Amino acid sequence: MEERTIIEYVPGDLVQWFERYADGFMTRDSGHGIVLEKREFNLSFNGGPYINYNVYRTKHNDKMIFDEIELQRIKNDR
Predict the structure, then answer these.
(1) pTM as predicted
(2) In CA terms, which of 4, 28, 38, 66 is 20 to 30 Å from 55?
(3) What values do phi and psi take at 64, rounded to 5?
(4) Per-residue pLDDT for 26 more than 70?
């Protein structure tokens, strides 16, 4: 089984976000934004921390929370 590479974002990273429909397969909307904060929760049932990100969406002038799989870094200086 192939292991998934986890990308961790930090506040200030420029990202492209993808908002999905409830089924999780189709993209409803997308745009650009800035990571504002990393949120980490320790859940005992998944064997590790659950991480999501608070992102400022420039397209809608609001903030929304995204999982790592729904983000893609725009500029990679690291």
Answers:
(1) 0.81
(2) 4
(3) -150, 150
(4) yes
